Amino acid sequence: MLFNYVAIDSTNIQREGTVEAATIDAAIGAVQKRGYTVVSIDPANESGGWKSLFNFEFSFLNTVSNKEVVILSRQISTLFQAHVSPLRIFRLLSAEVENKQLQSIMNRIVEDLQGGSSISRALSFHPEVFSSFYVNLVRAGEESGSLEKSFSYLADYLDRSYEIISKARNALIYPAFVVAIFIAVMGLMLTMVIPKIAEILTSSGQDLPIYTKIVIGFSNFLVDYIGIIFIVSAAAFVGLWRFKKTEVGQRTFDEFMISIPYLGDLKRKLLLTRICDNLATMLSSGVSMVQALEVTADVVDNLVYREIIQIALSEVKGGRSFADAISEYPEIPGVLTQMVKVGEETGSLSEILKTLADFYRREVNNAVDTLIGLIEPIMIVLLGLGVGVLLASVLMPIYNMTSSF
To answer: How many Å apart are CA 274 and CA 166, to the nearest integer?
Structure first.
């Protein structure tokens, strides 16, 4: 929900703007986090009916993508290298951004910078676009006086992350689409075509092959219980979705995802790529090991690996080396542990982690390429068998029936 606010900053200058929040209390808290004293705050006027529906759809279409954040980070880095002031950078880019939601966020960042806020603090008000990893890297750049390097690191990191995740996701789109179409066509055949052919075959009085009886029986089951099947499937989906929202469910799902043959190995390499790349980027930017581990634990989207990082973090705080802290977990490859140990001993941990990230990224690319090469012939064979069995179960009895005349 959008709220209009009037507030006073630390220099007693009146500020006006908008803030998005679920409730008015959350909106007040968001404004106060900017260092303002709230004078008044009210819900923004929003039209109902068709206009509200249109606005909802329009805002949904204008969600900020990872690609847009990559481009934005690259532009900010370039302008910093050109010695343009931060306030002017965000003003220029807010005028050039086409995405309305991102433009609104950029305008709010400009307001916060005008109010004396730091860049990292202004970015932290928008976690839906700028993650804790992003904010902490910018904060490290502010403290070290190398903001252009921080944004350059961010652009490179986000670009690498976007490329590898997109490649893995896109590799599954085509087979998922083909399988969905196949299931839909087979469902229509079994519920609309097969029952009519079954009437002709059973009325002929001939002895049907066992595979034809199985297909007809399955078809009758679908026709008789399609409503129940749909309700049970929907209930099962909702139940699994709600179970996944719990901590136990999320952990069960994450453990399952990394245990699937071949795909689980691909998922583990993706996670290791992200962990190594996060740590390498943050350590190269001057972030401490403890802070880098804290942020990495937040951005890893798998509870198994998140818990490993969190336990390692507590042990690092206690004086243990990072390599020793992760050495006892089977989810962490031995080669990674050994190379991290060498990096800690030689003082080149960030370079070692970057090398590991590049290695696992190549492994993911090779695995995805292999998966793409295997999926097509496997799908052709499986789909061919499915269609062949269905056609044979129908055509063979018809052929026998016609040949008997």
So the answer is: 14
Length of the chain, please?
Answer: 405
Comparing CA positions, the residue from 294, 314, 331, 292 lying closest to residue 157 is 292
Average pLDDT, rounded, for the chain: 81
Give the per-residue pLDDT at 311.
92
CB burial of 167-180 (b: ≥16 within 10 Å; e: otherwise) equals ebeebeeeeeeeee
Residue 258 burial (CB count, 10 A): 18
- Measured CA to CA, the distance from residue 367 to residue 66 in angstroms comes to 23
Distance CA 195, CA 294 (A): 60
Over 265-316, what HEC string results?
HHHHHHHHHHHHHHHHHHHHCCCCHHHHHHHHHHHCCCHHHHHHHHHHHHHH
pTM comes to: 0.65
Q: What is the pLDDT of residues 199-209, one digit of tens each?
A: 877 777 777 77
Structure token digits, residue 276 = 């190594």
Biggest alpha carbon–alpha carbon distance for the chain:
100
Type and span of the H or E element at 15: strand 14-20
Handedness of CA 248, 249, 250, 256 (dihedral sign): positive
Chain centre distance of CA 73: 19
So what's the pLDDT on residue 129?
83
Q: N- to C-terminal Cα distance for the chain?
A: 74
Edge-to-edge strands, sheet with 2-8: 14-20, 2-8, 37-43
DSSP string, 64-103: PPHHHHHHHHHHHHHHHHTT--HHHHHHHHHHH---HHHH
How is the chain split into domains, by residue range? Answer: 29-35+49-158, 160-405
The fold for domain 29-35+49-158 equals Receptor-associated Protein (1.20.81)
Question: Angle at Cα 140 formed by Cα 134 and Cα 145, nearest 5°?
Answer: 125
For domain 160-405, give its CATH number from 2.120.10.30, 1.25.40.10, 1.20.81.30, 3.40.50.2000. Answer: 1.20.81.30
Number of H helices and number of E strands within the chain? 17, 3
Contact of 400 with 212, CB cutoff 8 Å:
no
What Rg, from alpha-carbon coordinates, does the chain have? 29
Residue 360 has pLDDT above 60, yes or no: yes
